[in-house]
């Protein structure tokens, strides 16, 4: 019981500290797999940013549902590992099962886990839905349910199925 209480308090604290709806996303510069530099200015928007880790069982459970939403809506889902040990090779191998996701990789300027710190992400998965102005319209700490995610995409200006 205590473990659940501490976990819930941690999630609430994390949500209070993270980038909030209405705020612009922090600056970052990461590479996509084709070698293009991705920044908040170059993101295809609206977009979804998902912070994850290759070892995370919740991420593994959530990704098939997120991928289905990406396929159905055509919205770009950028995935950023917050695990410093997730190498480019690990990330790209993991993402082979999710071709609609755009993994963002370390650049000369930024590392993915540093970007997670700028968003004040305290765990994984954490999902941010961003509108055309790069403002957060919704965030999810833990699993993002399908209906809640579709509602957030509506708020971001996306026509959903």
From TrEMBL:
The residues that cross the membrane are none
> CDD domains given for it?
TlpA_like_family
PROSITE patterns, alphabetized: THIOREDOXIN_2
Q: Name one Pfam family in it.
A: AhpC-TSA
The cross-references to InterPro entries, in alphabetical order and at most eight, read: AhpC/TSA, Thioredoxin-like_sf, Thioredoxin_domain, Thioredoxin_ResA/DsbE_sf
Q: Where is the Thioredoxin domain?
A: 19-158
Protein's UniProt keywords contain Methyltransferase: no
Q: Which GO terms describe its molecular function?
A: isomerase activity
What keywords are assigned to this protein? Answer: Isomerase
In its UniProt entry, what is this protein called? Thio-disulfide isomerase
């Amino acid at each position: 019981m205590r473990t659940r209480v501490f976990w819930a308090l941690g999630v609430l604290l994390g949500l209070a500290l993270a980038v909030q709806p209405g705020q612009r996303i922090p600056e970052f510069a990461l590479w996509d797999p084709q070698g293009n530099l991705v920044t908040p200015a170059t993101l295809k928007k609206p977009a979804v940013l998902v912070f994850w880790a290759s070892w995370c069982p919740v991420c593994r459970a959530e990704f098939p549902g997120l991928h289905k939403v990406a396929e159905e809506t055509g919205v770009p889902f950028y995935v950023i590992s917050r695990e410093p040990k997730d190498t480019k090779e690990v990330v790209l191998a993991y993402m082979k099962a999710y071709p609609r996701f755009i993994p963002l990789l370390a650049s000369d300027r930024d590392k993915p886990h540093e970007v997670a710190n700028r968003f004040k992400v305290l765990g994984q998965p954490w999902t941010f839905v961003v509108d055309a102005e790069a403002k957060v319209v919704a965030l999810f700490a833990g699993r993002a349910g399908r209906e809640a995610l579709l509602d957030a995409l509506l708020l971001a200006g996306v026509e959903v199925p």
